[in-house]
Structure formats: C-alpha cells, structure tokens
Amino acid sequence: MKQRLWSLPGCIHCIGVKQADFAACTYDIMNTINEAKTLELKIKETKMERMVGTVVRGLRAPIITKGDDIVKITVDSVLKASKNEGFSLRDKDIVGLTEAIVARAQGNFANIEQISKDVKQKFDSDTVGLIFPILSRNRFAICLKGIAKSFKKIYLMFSYPSDEVGNPLVDYDLLDEEGVNPWTDILTENEFRSHFKNTKHIFTGVDYIKYYSDIIRESGTEVEVIFANNPISILNYTKNVITCDIHTRKRSKRLLKSQGAETVYGLDEILNQSVEGSGFNEKYGLLGTNKATEDSVKLFPRDCQVVVERIQEKLFELTGKKIEVLIYGDGAFKDPVGKIWELADPVVSPGFTEGLIGTPNELKLKYLADNLFPHLKGEELEKAICDYIMNKDSDLKDSMESQGTTPRRLTDLIGSLCDLTSGSGDKGTPIVYIQGYFDNYSV
C-alpha cells in the first residue's frame, strides 16, 4: 500500500515511486508554495483593514472539585475552545483563571471549628475588639462564626458610613443632616440608631449590624457594637484586637501597637498555617475567603505562581506559543449606584507570569489627533498616528501624549476585565482567554 507523503493540493505522489515521479512531486510542492506566496502578496497589496482589536472569550470548563488537575483542565479547555470555535492561539495571548477554581482544586477549605482553634491559640483573653469588618454574608459571616466561638465578649466596631469596600450603612447626606462627623464621633449602637433609622443594605436588604450581632450571640458570646473610623478608638474598650480590614490592615495594626494594644492580629494572620488538617494561606490567612457551606469557607489559593508557570509551560510545549497566564479574584472597580468598590480580595491577582508585570505604556489617540496632527485627515492622519505610535518612547510616564491613559498595573486591569467577563454566578466560564490586548493602533 502506498503511504501518503504530503497533503498539499496537487501532490499525488508517494514514497517509493520512481525518481521522475518524485521530481514531479517536488514541482507540485514548489508550485503550491509559489501560489501561496502570490496570494500573500495580493493580500498585502489590497491592504486588508484590521477591524477587531482586543477579543475576550469566557471559556466553559468542568465543575472543579478537590484533587482535580487544574493545569491540565485549563490547558485542555483552552485547546478545545480554540478547536471548536475556530480561533488560533498566538504569542502574547492571555489566559485568566479565577482564584476559586484553583482553591477548589487544592481543597483549600476550613471550617469554623478550625478557625476558632487558631484564634484561641493566638489570644489569652476572653474578650476581643473586632474592628472594621466588611458587610458581606459571603465574605465575612462564616469567619465571624468561628471567631465568635473563641471569646466570651466581642466589641464589634463598624466603620461608617460604609465599610472599607464601600458597602453603605447610611448615606453621606444623612451624616450632614444629623450633624454627625464620622472622623471624630464615636457612637454606641443606640446613638447610631437614634440618628439613622434605616440601616439595611441597598441591594441585599440586610441589616448587618443586627445580622453580625445575632451571629455572635448565637455562639453564646456577648456583643457590644461601636461605630468609629479610627482604629485606636477600640482601645477605649479592650487592648486585644482583631483587625478585619483588608487594604488598610497594615496601618491599623501599626497604629494599634503604637498606642498600647497588647495583642493584635489581622485576618491575614488567622489560618496562615494549617490547623488540624485545615486549608490555609501563608500570606493572606482568612483574607479572600468565600462562604462554602454554613460552617465552612473556601480560602484564597496557595502556590499561585507555580500554577501559572506550569500552565504557561504546558501551553508552550503543546502549541509553541508563549501565552501569559494569571489567576484573578475580585476586579478593582466601583459600582456607581451601590458605591461598592468590588475588591474584597487582598489583591486582584495572586499569581501571574512575567509578561504581565508593569503598567500600560500608551498614547492618547485623540490627543495626537487634536494637538500634533490637527491639519491631517483620513489616511494621512492614520498614517501619521501609526508612525508616531511605532516610534514612541519606552516610558511615557511624564509625557503629555499619555495623559488620560490608565495608570494602573496590567494585572489589575486584566484581572478586572477577566472578573467582569466570567461573572460570579452561573455563566460557567471560570477561564478567560484574551487576544490582542497588547496590540495598538499601528498593528
């Protein structure tokens, strides 16, 4: 049986045939190559206009459970999507995968008993001040159950008029109407409620003051609620403190310790190592947790750098393309209606490949058009702008031409894009594939 040597159009010859036939085969191949080159030249001559820039795809994946190979699942999902949807993988593409599926694959979970045991190991006192919790059933309520089991009394200090990430207790305008200064006034619960009658969350309808107080009482622990925005205000009540803030935690701990607090821990220092076989995160502890069940949480994933590098290596091995990879959590953006700043995780991206380090280095196109080339139009304007982009400096930080571009880290921008794409509900797309993100108008 003859074995096919090529599958190029026009090649009908095979291994083991006569030399003359082989020469004919070679001719067919060269002819096909020449035809391809001619076609390529024709395409260039027609100057086909690129009409699509950045493309973002949410990729469906299996439901991830403990013990799954997250590297294999991610790579397989990307390759299958490429094949089924008919797009080619390219260098400098980006794969994002949500932190949740990484943590689930790792089995990074803990229950309230394990949380409680770790807290008890850190505090000798039966009284603690719990300051600046975010208002979230998903993010904090289960952690609070574990903490509450560790003490006889908790002084629960809320920031106001909103929590750290923007969840409102009351409206700013009401503070003005009531003559309350949130930067100086320390209020008891009775005083707070005498000023503000409706403290239910604008979206969830939950009264978090009552909700958190009930969780503490149901654990058999006494609770006293305070409202203040200076962390050292809690020292009027107790010298033992757990700081629950996320992005201001280092400052809070520093101020408390400098003003005489005896024992101070942040949520990032609770379950920063395994307790009785629990999950843990050595860097972030309980920060970045999500509710798993009524008595357990999923923690932020560990070893993220190893995961992204393995995915990149495997994709390169299978495709020959250097694709960037990041793990993302909450995006860093703010809801203009509810005033919620989305970032309840300690960082947007806990792990990313080296090609995602840095900030955008971009020019503002309308600035170029209005200020440098106002006398040009049409193709001349496009050519002038493209030429300017191709010759731009490698660092535009102090350049007027870059004003109005986004001065944020690439991982924060791309992680936010991924979070908005995958959503937090039932889309079933925990993997995001981005193409053309690093392309500019000249490409």
Summarize the structure in words.
The protein has 443 residues and is α/β, with parallel strands linked by helices. The protein has 3 domains: 1-31, no CATH class; 56-105 and 303-360 and 406-435, 60s Ribosomal Protein L30, Chain: A, CATH 3.30.1330; 109-298, no CATH class. Helices cover 35% and strands 13% of the residues. It has 13 helices and 14 strands. The strands form 3 sheets. The protein has a 6-stranded mixed sheet, sandwiched between helices. Strands 1-14-2-12-13 form a 5-stranded mixed sheet. The protein has a 3-stranded antiparallel sheet with strand order 3-11-10. Helix 2 packs across helix 10 and helix 5 packs parallel to helix 8. The chain is globular. 37% of the residues are buried. Residues 1-15 and 43-47 have low confidence and may be disordered.
* Alpha carbon gyration radius: 29 Å
- What oligomeric state do these chains adopt? single chain
Number of domains: 3
- Estimate the mean pLDDT confidence: 89
Order of helices and strands: HEHEHEHEHEHEHHEEHEEEHEEHHHE
Which strands sit side by side, in order, in the main sheet?
6-7-5-4-8-9
Poorly predicted runs? 1-15, 43-47
Helical amount: 25-40%
Please tally the helical runs, counting DSSP H or I stretches of 4 or more residues: 13
Largest sheet: number of strands, sense, barrel closure: 6 strands, mixed
How many β-strands, per DSSP? 14
What proportion of the residues form beta strands (DSSP E)?
5-15%
Shape: globular
Task: Measure the end-to-end span.
Answer: 49 Å
